[in-house]
Design goal:
Radius of gyration: 18 Å
Shape: elongated
Number of helices: 2
């Protein structure tokens, strides 16, 4: 039996999206409930290293831009 997507809303940040267990997506699950993709992305960026391209396409690489941005905020 196919379950059509229904509206879901994040209890923490308020993000809304239609979700169904039968849709193809990469949303992780907690027990049998979907994890908010917005909160998941924030969690990963805060707790894991993100890789960036080091090729200098326009005189500066994405890696160098992120490195400079992080140095300004620290």
């Amino acid at each position: 039996m196919y379950i059509i997507p229904h509206p879901y809303k994040c209890i923490k940040c308020g993000y809304e999206q239609n979700w169904s267990p039968h849709e193809h997506q990469t949303t992780p699950m907690a027990d049998s409930d979907p994890v908010c993709p917005q909160c998941w992305s924030k969690f990963l960026k805060a707790n894991l290293g993100i890789m960036y391209c080091t090729v200098n396409w326009r005189n500066v690489s994405d890696y160098d831009k992120e490195l400079a941005k992080n140095e300004r905020t620290n």
